[in-house]
Write a structure and sequence with these properties.
about 500 residues; alpha+beta; Uridine Diphospho-n-acetylenolpyruvylglucosamine Reductase, domain 3; Alpha-Beta Plaits; 3 domains; 18 helices; 19 strands; binds flavin-adenine dinucleotide
């Protein structure tokens, strides 16, 4: 057990701790993983936690970690589900929630300089008071931070119009694993894109300069529905191609998800009977009228149903409550993938078939994030009170990923728990993986920043062992089949 050095204790005071009790709160994120498995594969509870207030303090902590060869895990909102912000090898957690606030706002250039621990809700609130707003944000808007979302995938609400977050960032201040504080731009070496989606493995982001926008003049929401998903995906692709400009956001819910929400009292009639596509428009009133006409012709052309405006508005307001289904089924397991929009219907059919064979209902929703891609979340019910079943069910996750990968997609973020899929599903082209590893070697030759994530699995999660484990889980799951079917769906 490593103890806090006296000089750092004096310097940081109550902003650092090596109390086992206090550190234990940093040993998990929002996902439940059976504790015996976590303990078998990782050392998730850090030896010490620091809450710095500026880049210089982050640099001091990292320099100390480098001297002692301690792992450093950056953490902000802690809202990931793949262990991205949870230590694999104990060491130090840097809690970045103290680096909060707006440093500068240039209204004319629609640009803001912000500290990374600011949440999306806080930044958006600051901007709205001045007639501006953020361009895009995650559904975890109220807890997710600017630095956390940039270090993850950066796709969510509004990405359809503005692209992933990295496209909106002009420069960053980063503390490198050497302890050096560096300003990086889109064209420097290393550049902004190295740190986007790096999941805190290349540097700690301590400042972000990003583009914002003026508040839209008008907004309007439509909720398209259909008993079959095909026409909805066609409409979604038309909208993403710009046929109903100015679309800001497109969100799809499968019929099984709507049904589960409705039967649990979390969605009104008649949602449970339909697959739905929520179309949100933002622009001038004239543009919205024109786009509204295009949407009505899609409804007629694809034989869809247009639901009531009040339901459309409710669906939009629920964008921050996408996981409310967990109130009914707290043990949901989840897979998040990028899937080509052209393959979404096939993905849905195959995954629902898989669910039927396995005796579980697959609940799917998706953000359409570009002309070609959707960020798809499939959830299914398990039982975390029964670790044996929970582990056997995890074999379904692998099969869902396999389906998505075969259709040209793949897992969205990697964190710790998706590292085995780097090889099993070949998430990256080998050249891309090699390039990522070279960046890591260049910036972090000692491998202190967030080890065990992004570049390759730890030995116990090696593709061979993991593959055997999955096969065994899949085999044993057959014996659970009858029990699972009796779990009260329909
Ligand atoms: C209900 C719900 C909805 C969600 N919706 C979305 C969504 O729409 N889109 C999406 O992409 N994700 C989504 N997520 C996942 C998650 O909330 C996001 O990835 C979020 O942006 C993470 O931000 P955070 O502040 O919680 O970061 P954390 O979870 O604390 O950290 C995330 C990663 O970033 C690293 N990190 C954090 N801060 C820094 C920093 N300053 N410098 C370097 N590395 C850093 C951490 O080490 C970790 O690897 C959702 C999660 C939930 C629970």
């Amino acid at each position: 057990m490593i103890q806090l050095p006296k000089n750092l204790k004096e310097r940081f005071g109550s902003r650092c701790t090596d109390s086992r009790f206090e550190c234990s709160f940093y040993g998990r994120d929002v996902a439940y993983i059976p504790p015996f498995l976590v303990r078998l594969l990782t050392r998730p509870v850090p030896d010490m936690v620091f809450r710095p207030l500026c880049a210089e303090e982050v640099s001091e902590i990292i320099a100390f970690a480098g001297r002692r060869r301690l792992a450093v895990t950056p953490r902000a909102g802690g809202s990931t589900a793949l262990g991205s912000c949870v230590p694999v090898k104990a060491g130090i957690v840097i809690d970045l929630n103290g680096l909060k606030g707006v440093l500068g706002f240039e209204a004319g250039k629609e640009k803001v300089k912000v500290l990374p621990g600011t949440t999306w809700a806080e930044l958006d609130g600051y901007l709205r008071r001045r007639g501006y707003c953020v361009r895009s944000y995650p559904s975890s808007f109220h807890v997710a931070t600017i630095g956390g979302w940039l270090s993850g995938g950066g796709c969510g609400v509004g990405s359809l119009r503005y692209g992933p977050l990295v496209n909106q960032v002009s420069s960053l201040e980063v503390v490198l694993p050497s302890g050096e504080i560096r300003r990086v731009t889109r064209h420097s070496q290393p550049c902004v894109s190295w740190f986007a989606a790096a999941e805190g493995t290349l540097g700690v982001i301590t400042g972000v300069e990003l583009k914002v926008r003026t508040l839209p003049e008008a907004t309007r929401h439509f909720l398209l529905a259909s008993k079959e998903p095909g026409g909805l995906f066609e409409a979604a692709r038309d909208c993403a191609r710009g046929l109903a400009h100015p679309v800001y956001n497109l969100h799809y819910n499968s019929r099984s998800l709507n049904w589960a929400l409705q039967t649990g009292g979390l969605a009104p009639e008649p949602l449970g009977r339909y697959h739905t596509l929520a179309v949100s428009l933002e622009g001038t009133p004239t543009d919205l009228d024109r786009a509204g006409e295009s949407i009505w012709s899609m409804v007629k052309g694809y034989g869809l149903t247009m639901l009531d405006d009040s339901l459309a508005l409710e669906e939009w307001e629920n964008r921050f409550r996408l996981l409310r289904i967990r109130r009914l089924y707290p043990s949901l397991l989840a897979c998040e993938l990028l899937v080509p929009t052209a393959s979404c219907q096939q993905y849905l059919e195959e995954v629902e078939n898989l669910g039927r064979q396995a005796g579980v209902r697959m609940l799917t929703y998706a953000h359409i994030i570009s002309r070609d891609q959707a960020l798809v979340m499939t959830l299914y019910y398990s039982d975390e009170g029964n670790p044996f079943r929970y582990l056997c069910d995890a074999s379904l996750t692998a099969r869902i990923y396999r389906t998505g990968c075969r259709l040209g997609g793949g897992p969205y973020t990697i964190g710790f728990w998706n590292t085995p899929y780097l090889h099993l599903q070949k998430i990256h082209h080998p050249d891309r993986l090699q390039e990522l590893r070279q960046r890591k070697l260049l910036l972090d030759p000692q491998g202190i920043l967030n080890p065990g994530k992004v570049y390759g699995p730890t030995p116990l999660l090696s593709p061979v062992l993991f593959g055997i484990g999955l096969k065994a889980a899949g085999f044993l799951r057959v014996f659970l089949h009858e029990r699972v079917r009796c779990d009260g769906w329909e």
